């Protein structure tokens, strides 16, 4: 069974930090060129926030540059998102995902985690 399990969400004050994790089973993340984190806030569409290639090249949405760091650990079959200086607008359900190539379109991704809630209060 192929499964991505994301975790690490929680409720924090603005300016706080959280580290999200995504553990893969039944699939190797090294088999995919692109691993990514998406988020969906209340009443909003799902949007990409960070992407990392198999060669560990990272790309970020403008809204999170300088605050979030994506990383992958192929040996441990895991993906991470370190979030710092969190803002209320970061409040969303965060999902990890895998694709054969990086894209900002959610429809491009073959596998998804179940989502983990991040809530940032003022």
Features:
four-stranded antiparallel beta sheet; 122 residues; 0% helix; mainly beta; seven-stranded mixed beta sheet
Q: What percent of residues are in strands?
A: over 45%
> How many H/I helical runs?
0
- Oligomeric state of shown chains: single chain
Mean pLDDT across all amino acids? 95
What about the largest sheet? Answer: 7 strands, mixed
Structural class: mainly beta
What is the H-and-E element order?
EEEEEEEEEEE
Number of strands: 11
- CA-based gyration radius: 13 Å
Q: What shape does the CA trace take?
A: globular
Low-confidence stretches: none
Binned, the helix content reads under 10%
N-end to C-end Cα span:
40 Å
Describe this structure in words.
This protein is mostly beta strands and 122 residues long. The chain is 0% helix and 51% strand. The chain contains no helices and eleven strands. The N and C termini lie far apart (40 Å). The model has no long low-confidence stretch (mean pLDDT 95).
Could you write a compact summary of the structure shown?
By secondary structure, the chain is mainly beta. The protein contains no helices and 11 strands. Strands 2, 4, 5, 6, 9, 10 and 11 form a 7-stranded mixed β-sheet that branches. It has a 4-stranded antiparallel β-sheet with strand order 1-3-8-7, with no helix packed on it.
């Amino acid at each position: 069974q192929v499964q991505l399990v994301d975790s690490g969400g929680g409720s924090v004050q603005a300016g706080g930090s959280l580290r999200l994790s995504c553990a893969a089973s039944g699939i190797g993340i090294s088999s995919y060129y692109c691993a990514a984190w998406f988020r969906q806030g209340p009443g909003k569409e799902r949007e990409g926030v960070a992407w990392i290639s198999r060669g560990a090249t990272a790309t970020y949405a403008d809204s999170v540059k300088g605050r979030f760091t994506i990383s992958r650990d192929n040996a441990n079959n895991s993906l991470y998102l370190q979030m710092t200086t969190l803002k209320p607008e970061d409040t969303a359900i965060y999902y990890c995902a895998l694709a054969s190539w990086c894209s900002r379109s959610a429809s491009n991704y073959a596998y998804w985690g179940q989502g983990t809630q991040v809530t940032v209060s003022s």
